[in-house]
Amino acid sequence: MNDYRKIIELGSLSDVPKKRRTAELCQLAIENGRGSLEDIPKKHRTAEMCELAVKKNQGELHDVLVALRTEELCLFALEQKRGWLDDVPFSLRTAELCRRAIENGRGSLSDVPKKRRTAELFQLAIENGRGWLSDVPDHLRTADLCRRAIENGRGWLSEVPDDLRTADLCELAVEKNQGELHDVPVALKHLFSQGEKK
After folding, report:
1. Which of 5, 13, 134, 178 could in theory staple to 173 by disulfide, Cβ–Cβ 3.0 to 4.6 A?
2. In angstroms, rounded to a whole number, what is the distance separating the alpha carbons of residues 153 and 87?
3. 3-state secondary structure of 6
4. What does the alpha-carbon distance between residue 141 and residue 134 come to, in Å, rounded to a whole number?
């Protein structure tokens, strides 16, 4: 055991044969920054050890056993870029946790439970490149949201409700290759010639 302690002091847990990795050695390795969660046998992974590993940047959320993932640990991992929203158990995906994941670029709208999707979250996802205009229900597609989606390359003119297709938005979409001339309302087609404004 002492020989393996020296190995950990000088090297890392990955230098210890897998069959010799005891719970005590694993704990020592994590406490001293000499190992990562992926090096620890699953039978030795405790809640405390997993939390310490994620907080010390020695483990990713996906390496934590699902039963040991708490809302607090998941939130910390998402904010520190040590995990993704799809690593968070479905039951822990609160509105706040989902918002933070989208905000930090650690998840997309497809990972958010439908009951947690709000107008604010759709806006945030479009702005942060974590969702598409096609993900947004028609009744929540506002002029501002559609414009942001086109500007950020997160939507197509064909997805914009007809009553929101203004000359300005059509011009922007065609310029950014986010729309085709055939998607421009008939009343505005006279503004374009061969896909470019006259």
Report:
1. 178
2. 27
3. helix
4. 10
